[in-house]
Amino acid sequence: MKEKYVTITGVNHYYGMRPFCIGKRIKCIKDTENPYDSEAIKVVMKGIGTVGYIANSPSTCATGTMSAGRIYEKVRKNFVIEVMFITSSKVICKVVDGLKTL
User: Fold this and answer.
1) Which string of b and e fits 60-92 if b means at least 16 CB within 10 Å?
2) pTM of the entire structure?
3) Which of 49, 67, 100, 101 is least enclosed, having the fewest CB within 10 Å?
4) How many CA atoms lie within 13 A of 35 on its CB side?
5) Res 101 pLDDT > 90
6) pLDDT at 63 > cutoff 90
7) Mean pLDDT across the stretch 15-24?
8) Domain 5-99 falls in which CATH fold?
């Protein structure tokens, strides 16, 4: 199965880049109650809470990563990502657990 990558966005609305480090595994949860985006996926760290969302627009997705809308049906309600790269404005992660089998 081909690897899937996503971008975490909205971190400045929470704790900024401080909670992120290369190799950290983070839980993602489909946010079915989100009034702004029916495909929203929140990124949650144990002991902290929400730290961002999976990017869902061309302006926030890093090149080569999937938007929340593109990955939404490919993952379970809860899934795990691993931080691969951190830039000044983006956190790029690989989906490591929770992909649906076809």
Assistant:
1) bbbeebbbbbebbeebeeebbbebeebeeebbb
2) 0.93
3) 101
4) 0
5) no
6) yes
7) 96
8) Alpha-Beta Plaits (3.30.70)
